[in-house]
Structures are given as C-alpha cells and as structure tokens.
What we know:
Shape of chain A: globular
Distance between the termini of chain A: 39 Å
Largest sheet of chain B: 6 strands, mixed
Number of strands of chain B: 11
Shape of chain B: globular
Oligomer: heterodimer
Largest interface: A-B, 18 and 22 residues
Structural class of chain B: mainly beta
Order of helices and strands of chain B: EEEEEEEEEEE
Structural class of chain A: mainly beta
Helix content of chain A: under 10%
Amino acid sequence: SQTIHQWPATLVQPVGSPLSLECTVEGTSNPNLYWYRQAAGRGLQLLFYSVGIGQISSEVPQNLSASRPQDRQFILSSKKLLLSDSGFYLCAWRGQGLQPQHFGDGTRLSIL
Amino acid sequence: GQQVMQIPQYQHVQEGEDFTTYCNSSTTLSNIQWYKQRPGGHPVFLIQLVKSGEVKKQKRLTFQFGEAKKNSSLHITATQTTDVGTYFCAGSHSNYQLIWGAGTKLIIKP
C-alpha cells in the first residue's frame, strides 16, 4: 500500500534562518506531488505542485521554493524565513487521473 | 481565477442536530471531492462525485453533486462528537488540479 512520510512534525525557527522540509512517498510511482500551507483556522493554500522529476509549478510568489530530485521525494525550502511563513505545511500525493489526494501528517512551523 | 465558494465558514450545532455545508463553482466541474480534517490533523479524503445529479451516502453522511456540476453539498444527519472537524470540498476541471473551498468547521455545542 502507499504511504507518505513528512518530517519534522514540528519546527521552531528564527526569522532569517533557512528551511528544508522533506516529503517522501512509498508504494507508487510517478505521483503528482503537492505542498500546501494552512494558516490557523484557515483553508489550504497550494504552494507548489509537481507532475514529475525536476518539474515544479509555483502557485504563489514568495520566498519559498520546491524541488523534486527523485520521483517520490519532494522538498520545500527557503533561504531566509519570514514571520509570515509560520503555518501548517502539508505534503500530498495523487495518482494519475481523477484520483484523491493523500496527505502527510504535516509540519507545524513557528517562526520567532 | 476559478474559485469554489464554500459556506458557511462555521456551524455550531447541538449533538444530534443535522449539519450541511455547500460548495458552489462559477464554472462546470469535472468532479468534486470531499475531505475531513480533524482538529490538529491532516485532510482525509471522504468521497468523490463525478456524475451530474449524483448522490452518495456513507452512513449518516449524504453527498450531492448538482445537475449542472457547479454545486455540491454534504449533509450529516444526527451529528455526533466524532463528526467534529473541518469539511472541505475540492473541485477539478479537465486538468485534474483541485480548487479547494475554504472549509466549513463543524462545532458541537457542549
């Protein structure tokens, strides 16, 4: 069966520090991969999605970037975090066609 | 751009009362999916509707997709404490990319 791993579960970082969040999927090949951010009590904001290795689409201009170095690995990065980057970051994968998205457990990021 | 409007933002109910959340799109959708996010958790897929006028049931949950494939609803009969959470709809067009509603938070009054 397919599983998705996302870490860390929580992270506290100072303003201006770098960020790297990793997400890996097992049990499937060539998944569509997604990074979302969710502010407290709010909806899901799509940040990036990828349909294949090295293919990244950005939905919102910001100081975050994403990379997909391997088929089932998706990384969210920042060189310098801002206070506004705080939130709940969720990775998700989807198979081809009209398939549902499956989410990781998320990372709660607090910027101090 | 394309949007899916979801209302209400919050709904407070007494345990045992019914709950309904509605989603509306300005354009025709290929399908609509529903997800539930428990407090502190991640969204979990509930169901997908594809056909015009489709109705699906999961125990006390009833999902509908409008005839024009522009609106959808989720109705919960006789809510229980385990139903607490935020319910999201997400529609897609031919490119399969989901457009998410803002969610409806179900709160059970003590």
